[in-house]
């Protein structure tokens, strides 16, 4: 989460005036998704600590969210700064990792409920 805050501050102060409006909005979207999913990783750890999900479930969900951050936000950060629009082609792979991570969390939470 600290990295997301740092990148957000860099974008707000270091990139303003250097990027056009479109690129700045792409960068801001990368920061938003980075931050939200970093919070998600923290949430998953708390859920596992309180036995709402298993530790193996925690690991799988956290890895999917981390992969999503790296691929989704990473590709948007790079696209915004470099202007290479072809990088947008891999962004959906990161989005898919986010979706799978949240679905896996729901599965783990339902599966771990006492019967």
Provide a concise account of the structure shown.
By secondary structure, this protein is mainly α.
Structural class of the helix and strand makeup? Answer: mainly alpha
Please report which band the strand proportion falls in: under 5%, 5-15%, 15-25%, 25-35%, 35-45% or over 45%. Answer: under 5%
Q: For the terminal residues, how far apart are their CA atoms? A: 36 Å
Count of discrete structural domains: 1
Report Rg: 16 Å
Largest sheet composition: none
Large-scale geometry: elongated
Which bin fits the share of residues in helices?
over 70%
Keywords:
115 residues; mainly alpha
Please, could you describe this protein's structure?
By secondary structure, the chain is an all-alpha fold. It has one domain (about 1-110). The protein has four helices and no strands. It has helices at about 1-15, 20-50, 55-80, 90-110. The longest helix has 29 residues, at about 20-50. The model has no long low-confidence stretch (mean pLDDT about 95).
């Amino acid at each position: 989460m600290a990295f997301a805050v740092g990148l957000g501050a860099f974008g707000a102060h270091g990139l303003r005036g250097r990027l056009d409006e479109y690129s700045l909005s792409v960068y801001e979207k990368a920061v938003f998704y980075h931050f939200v999913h970093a919070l998600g990783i923290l949430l998953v750890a708390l859920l596992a600590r309180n036995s709402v999900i298993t530790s193996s479930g925690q690991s799988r969900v956290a890895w999917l969210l981390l992969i999503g951050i790296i691929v989704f936000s990473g590709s948007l950060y790079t696209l915004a700064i470099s202007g290479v629009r072809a990088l947008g082609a891999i962004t959906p792979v990161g989005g898919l990792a986010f979706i799978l991570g949240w679905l896996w969390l729901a599965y783990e939470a339902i599966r771990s409920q006492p019967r």
